[in-house]
Amino acid sequence: MESLESGSDDINQMVQAQEPLICGLPDDIALFCLARVPRVYHTVLKCVSRRWRDLVCSEDWHTYRRKHNLDETWIYALCRDKFERICCYVLDPNSSRRSWKRVQGLPSRSLRRKGVGFEVLGKKLYLMGGCKWSEDATDETYCYDASINTWNEANPLSTARCYFACEVLNQKIYAIGGLGLDSSVPHSWDTYNPCTNSWNSYSDPNIVPEIEDSFVLDGKIYIRCGKSAVNFQVYAVVYEPSSGTWHHADADMASGWQGPAVVVDGTLYVLDESSGTRLMMWRKDVREWVPVGRLSLMLTRPPCKLVSIGKSIYVIGKGRSTVVVDVSNAGNMGGIMVSSSIPKLTSNDEIISCKCLSI
After folding, report:
1. What is the pLDDT of residue 329?
2. What is the mean pLDDT of residues 270-274?
3. What structural domains and CATH numbers belong to the chain?
4. What is the pLDDT of residues 13-27, one digit of tens each?
5. I need a labelling partner for 47 at 20 to 30 A (CA). Which of 30, 113, 252, 356 fits?
6. Are 213 and 258 in contact (CB under 8 A)?
7. How far apart are CA 290 and CA 297, in angstroms?
8. For the purposes of burial, counting CB atoms within 10 Å of the CB of 98, is it exposed (0-12), middle (13-18) or buried (19 or more)?
9. Of 346, 359, 358, which is closest to residue 100 (Cα–Cα)?
10. How many angstroms separate the CA atoms of 91 and 348, rounded?
11. Residues 148-153, mean pLDDT to the nearest whole number
């Protein structure tokens, strides 16, 4: 009986695979139509049939929407709540409600960890490493597929580490520096190649310890630690992918990098939180930092993280309070930038990291 039922299931799957996506239309025309359905309704599409579900969850769907500029970007925030547990929220910037929603199913083994890495590659989120007060750094890695809303265990890091930088360059994840099980960890980095589903480890003595921030600009990775206790200067290094080495970043650029950073269309912006919240811009042509404007203290709740979508910078602070600044039209009145905001929540969740994921 079991073999008969199994054979029947195989036949049903073959029949469904042969059926058109939309009756009376070739599949390429059906894909042309379905791919234009807004991302918020993709969950509904997956309920129509098995073929529709498999299509919406596939890499082909993701690639097609990206190729035809149909992909939509949502923001994912990794937070720590009042119980010292990590949690994840997602924001659809195009929604009329513009409210944060919780992402369920976070791996239970990671909930109490600190110093975890958080990065996006393609349509997947990666949660990496971390440690507890009673547990050394780990190499465990978990992957969240946004198209199927599911967490799974992934290939572990080459090196157990926590409190490290994460960036994506040339379609590879870089896990850089931090702390680990031996003294070599702060001066090493791991790279993940999704094509081979494997990690590789490298080392360089120039990598800074106690990393506080990072970004990618002009095809290079920049990382920095806090100010030196000796000369109170910001210490930053840059990774050159052509040579696979790290060297000191230019002092004039590093001097103004004193807060969370984000790159918009090749231009670097930093949120200076030393006195209120002031957005600064790095002018590469004249090698100097210039103020863009101040954000209202009534809207921001530092410490904040920055992400960008198009020409807009999202300033996300405690409790996921969110301020949106369009830098293409950053007109200011009396030094206060014109911006829009998402109403504050009663939560005081700490923002660990924010990333953008497009489907």
Report:
1. 77
2. 94
3. 2-67 (no CATH), 105-257 (2.120.10.80)
4. 544 556 899 999 999
5. 356
6. no
7. 20
8. middle
9. 346
10. 17
11. 96
HSE-CB at 179 with a 13 A cutoff on CA atoms is: 13
- Report yes or no: 122 and 130 within 8 Å, Cβ to Cβ: no
Residue 228 has a pLDDT of: 56
Q: What is the pLDDT of residue 88?
A: 98
C-beta neighbour count of 50 within 10 angstroms: 13
The pLDDT > 90 percentage for the chain reads 79
Rounded CA-CA distance 100/92 in Å is 8
The secondary structure of the chain, three-state, reads: CHHHHHHHHHHHHHHHHHCCCCCCCCHHHHHHHHCCCCHHHHHHHCCCCHHHHHHHCCHHHHHHHHHCCCCCEEEEEEEECCCCCEEEEEECCCCCCCCCEEECCCCHHHCCCECCEEEEECCEEEEECCEECCECCCCCEEEEECCCCEEEEECCCCCCEECCEEEEECCEEEEECCEECCCCHHHEEEEEECCCCEEEEEECCCCCCCEEEEEEECCEEEEEEEECCCCCCEEEEEEECCCCEEEECCHHHHHCCCCCEEEECCEEEEEECCCCEEEEEEECCCCEEEEEEEECCCCCCCCCEEEEECCEEEEECHHHCEEEEEHHHCCEECCEECCEEECCCCCCCEEEEEEEEEC
The answer to whether 261 and 268 have CB atoms below 8 angstroms apart is: yes
State the pTM of this model: 0.91
> What band does 231 get if pLDDT is binned at 50, 70 and 90?
low
**What residue has token string 């960036």?**
167
Per-residue pLDDT tens digits for 294-350 = 988 778 899 999 999 999 999 999 999 999 999 987 654 444 444 556 655 678 899
Mean pLDDT of 122-140: 95
Pairwise CA distance, residues 274 & 277, whole Å: 7
